[in-house]
Amino acid sequence: MLYIYSPFNSHGIHFAGVPASTAAPTTTSSTTALTSSHAVASSSGTSSIGSPALTATPKLPSEITGKTVEEIIKEWNAELQERTGKFRKQATAIAEWDKRILQNRDVLLRLEIEVAKVVETQANLERQLELIETHQQEVDKALQSVEEEAERIYKNEHELLLDDEAASTRDAMYEHAEFIEREMEQMTEQIKSVIQTLNANQGGELDAIDGMTPLDMVVRILNNQLSSLMWIDEKAEEFSSRIQKLANQGSTAERQLSTFVDPTATERNLDLAFILLGFRSDPFTLLVRVCACMGVIVALFRCVCLEESNGNESNGKWAYKYVSELWRKKQSDVMRFLQRVRCWEYRQHPSIVRVTHPTRPDKARRLGYKAKQGYVVYRIRVRRGGRKRPVPKGIVYGKPTNQGVTQLKFQRSKRSVAEERAGRKLGGLKVLNSYWINEDSTYKYFEVILVDAAHNAIRNDPRINWICNPVHKHRELRGLTSAGKKYRGLRGRGHLHHKARPSRRATWKRNQTLSLRRYR
Asked: Which residue windows are coiled coil (predicted)?
C-alpha cells in the first residue's frame, strides 16, 4: 500500500486505496479505525488465513512530531523566506555579472572599432610610404642623370679651362681671399680678448657683462651713482654733527671746517668718481659727465649744509630737504634724465618686484621707513587711464550727450590700487605706506613700504610694533594708509570741512583722556 505525505492531514498521513469518505479527517483515534476494519473483515465470512496480515501504522516524521499545523506552516514559511533571500542574492550577483559582461562587451566593441581605424590608418600610411619611395627613386634617377651630364661636360671643358690663364689666376685669388678672411677672424678674437682685459683692469666691478647693451651699462652706472649719493648724504650728516660741536669752540671751528671742505680734495674725489664710473669708453662720455654733474651738485649741497650748520641755523636745508625739492619740482635736467632712464628700466621688470632700497629715501623716511630688518620695499606698476562705460553690443541709446562717456574715473587713486595689489600679493606682510616714483604714458610706478609683523625686530620696537596687532591686517583695503585717508577725504581742513574725525564723541574722548605713552 502506498503512503502519501500531505500537509492537509492533521496527522500528515492518508491511504491512497481508502475511499474519500473513510479518508476524511476525523478526531477518532487510530485504534477505532483498526477495530472497525476488523469487524468488516469478520463479517465477510472469508477465512482470515487466506487474507494478508494488516501492516502496522507508519510513524510521523521527527520534524513535525508534537507540532500543530500552524507551527509546521510557520517553519515552512521561514524556510521559504530564507531560501527566497538566498535566491535573490544569487540572482543579484548573476545580474551584476551580466552587467559587467555587457560593459566588457561594449569595451571590446569600441576597441574593435579603434583597431579597425588603426589598421586603416596603417594601410594609408603604408600607401603613402610606397608613394614617397617611388618619388624618391625617381629623384635618385634624375640626380644620377644630372651627375653623369655634369661629369661629361666637365671632361669636355676641362682642357679649355686649363688653357685659360685668367681662370687660374681667379682661383688663386679666391684661395688667397679665404686665407685673409681666416686671419681677420683670428685678429678680431684677439682684439676682443685684449679689450675685455683692459676693461677688467680699469673698471673693476663695473666691467660690462656679456649680453648687456650700452643702455644697461648706463642704468648700472646711475644706480651706483645713487648709492654714492646716499653714502655722501650719510657722511654729510656725520660731518655736520661734528661741525655743530666744533662751532661752539670759536675760531678753531673755522680751521676744522676748512679741513672738511677742501676744494682740492673735492676735485680728487670727482676724478676718482670719473674713473669708478667707467669713464673710459667714448660712447658714454656725455652720460658720465651728467653723473659727474650730479656729484658736483651733491658736493654743493654738502658745502651749503656745512655753512648753514656753521651759522647755527637749526632749520637749515639739509641733504634730505634738497633731495625732496628735486623730486617735488622736477625742474632739474639731471633729474629728468634719471627719470627717463629709470622708467625704461622699470618697464623691463615685472609689475611687482622687490627693491633693495627706496628710490626716494627722504619720502620713505617721512612715511615711516627705517633701514632695519623687518622693512621691505616693493615697486608696483599700475596701468594709467580711466574706465569706459560698458554698453551691450556697443549700442548707445538716448540723447547724443550720453554717447561716448569715456571719462569715468575710479574713486580710488592709482597709489591706493598699488597698495591693494601689494597687500594681496604679499599676504604675510602688512602695508605701511607708499609713494610715487615715476610714470610714463602707459603706467604709473609706486613704491610700497611693507612691514613683516612676525619679525622680532619689529615686534620689539615700541615705535612700530603697533602694526603687529591683528586689527591692522590689510590696512590698505580699509583706507587706513596715507593714500586711503586721502581718497576718503580725511585730509581736508578749514572751510567746508566741519566733520570731526572719526566722530565728535571720539574727539572729545581723545582730548579728555590723559595719555602717558612712551612715544607720541
From this structure: 108-197
Are 297 and 232 in contact, with CB atoms under 8 Å apart?
no
* Omega of the bond leading into 358 within 30 degrees of 0 (cis): no
Strand order in the sheet with 443-451: 352-355, 375-383, 443-451, 430-439
Give me the amino acid identity at 342. R
**CA-CA distance, 434 to 450, in Å (whole number)?**
9
pLDDT tens for residues 484-518? 998 888 887 778 777 667 778 888 998 899 888 76
The rounded distance, in Å, linking the Cα atoms of 257 and 243 is 7
Which of residues 302, 333, 348 is at a domain's end?
A: 348
How would you classify residue 12: left for phi > 0, otherwise alpha for psi between -120 and 50, otherwise beta?
left
Cα 87 to the center of its chain, rounded Å: 60
Cell 663695473 belongs to 206
Helix, strand, or coil (residue 407): coil
Q: For residue 203, what pLDDT is reported?
A: 56
- Radius of gyration, CA atoms only, the chain: 55
51 is a domain residue: no
pTM over 0.70: no
C-alpha distances out from residue 499 to 488, 491, 502, Å:
12, 11, 8
pLDDT per position as a tens digit, 320-352: 887 888 887 766 777 888 888 999 999 999 999
Cell of 469: 596687532
Q: Identify the three-state secondary structure at position 390.
A: coil
Q: Find the domain containing 16 and state its range.
A: 1-26
Distance CA 222, CA 277 (A): 9
Provide the residue type at 477 as one letter: L
Three-class DSSP category at 15? strand
Q: Would you give the distance in Å from CA 32 to the centre of its chain? A: 104
Whether 178 maps to a domain, the answer reads: yes
Classify 408 as helix, strand or coil.
strand
Q: Which residue has the cell 515552512?
A: 76
Bridge partners of 433? 449
Q: Is residue 507 domain-resident?
A: no
Which tops the pLDDT comparison, 354 or 16? 354
> Same domain, yes or no, for 194 and 216?
no
Give 409-478 as a DSSP string. Answer: --SS-HHHHHHHHHHHH-TTSEEEEEEEEEE-SSEEEEEEEEE-TT-HHHHT-TTTGGGGSGGGTTGGGG
Report the distance separating Cα 439 and Cα 384, nearest Å: 9
